[in-house]
Specification:
To bacterial alkanal monooxygenase alpha and beta chains. This protein is an alpha/beta fold and 331 residues long. It is 47% helix and 15% strand. It has an 8-stranded parallel barrel with strand order 1-2-3-4-5-6-7-9, surrounded by 8 helices. Strand 5, helix 7 and strand 6 form a beta-alpha-beta unit.
Length: 331
């Protein structure tokens, strides 16, 4: 089973953003040693408890301290940016770390309305132009525009020996269709969706049009996972991120709570129901249970690879979760 890491670089209570980013680097180094396929880091803006607003900066830091694991963005929020600049940035990374760079693209704002306005003008118009933005970005990555195009003589320098691999990330049929039409690999964010992901991935694979001769459809499903030595311990650790999400919904969140802080947080009956529903969408358990559930997800979705996102208060619990999963999945 191919497994990868999605890191949202969570900031725990009583932890600084600098400490959270260093913990992200340690997670990437561990993933490299444990045999994970890839490590992606997410882009968020002005969201309390999430430290990474610039994946491209973290990837330079992480790439220099890892060896073989593929590294990338999960995702660059393309409507905020010009495709040329994104291509330049990721070509630069691919020049520094040949054959290891993934360029994940998304269309979400990644933060508040105020952050969106501060980042870009006419964000919604850019979202509507997403197909054109993606096409332009791919042409810059391929260094291939039609002769009559205004950018025909323009390159997104430096041109690397191996181009970044473009991915489209999403949770809808629209994103799957866009990935298929452009011959891109696709990642479905099951951890943040209530859509029927298996139908969406089926649609993606059936509609896939190769961008280059040998391209084949390739789909990742991203799931929220917490693994510990025992089932009870895993559920206890999970309370931190679950209660933190309740706080986020109430605009009260400052950092991922400790287990003790989460246990003492007063929950309403409605919030208890929300937590129960969130747990049902997650994979929580001991290594045997988690491995079995991952196999079920892979089979149900027809996924080529699974990407795991794990948020805990203690970075050591997060590392342990990935270690236990690697031991089972890499046998």
């Amino acid at each position: 089973m191919k497994v990868s890491i999605l890191d949202q670089s969570p900031v725990s209570s009583h932890q600084t953003p600098a400490e959270a980013l260093k913990a992200s680097m340690q997670l990437a180094k561990a993933g490299d040693k444990l045999g994970y396929e890839r490590y992606w880091i997410a882009e968020h803006h002005d969201l309390s408890g999430l430290a990474c607003s610039a994946p491209e900066v973290m990837l330079g830091y992480i790439g220099a301290q890892t060896n073989t694991i593929r590294i990338g963005s999960g995702a660059v929020l393309l409507p905020h940016y010009k495709p040329y600049k994104v291509a330049e940035t990721y070509n630069m990374l691919a020049t520094l770390f040949p054959g290891r760079i993934d360029l994940g693209i998304g269309r979400a704002p990644g933060g508040s309305a105020e952050a969106t306005n501060a980042l870009s003008d006419n964000f919604l118009q850019q979202v509507f132009k997403m197909p054109e933005l993606v096409e332009e970005l791919l042409q810059f990555l391929d260094d291939k525009f039609p002769a009559e195009h205004e950018y025909a003589k323009l390159s997104a320098s430096p041109l690397p020996p191996v181009s970044p691999e473009p991915w489209l990330l999403g949770t809808s049929k629209k994103s799957a269709e866009l990935a298929a039409r452009n011959g891109m690999a696709y990642t479905f964010g099951q951890f943040m969706s209530e859509q029927d992901g298996s139908a969406i991935i089926d649609q993606y694979k059936q509609a896939f049009q190769p961008r280059q001769g040998g391209d084949q459809p390739y789909a990742i499903v991203t799931v929220s996972v917490i693994c510990a030595e025992t089932t009870e311990q895993a559920h206890l650790i999970a309370t931190s991120s679950l209660v933190w999400k309740i706080q986020q919904d109430k605009m009260e969140a400052k950092g991922v709570l400790s287990i003790e802080e989460a246990a003492s947080y007063p929950l309403t009956e409605e919030e208890e129901k929300k937590i129960k529903k969130m747990k049902e969408a997650m994979i929580i358990g001991n290594p045997e249970e988690v491995h079995e559930r991952l196999q079920e997800v892979q089979a149900r979705y027809g996924a080529d690879e699974l990407m795991l996102v794990t948020i805990t208060h203690d970075p050591a619990d997060r590392l342990k979760s990935y270690e236990l999963i690697a031991e089972k999945c890499k046998k």
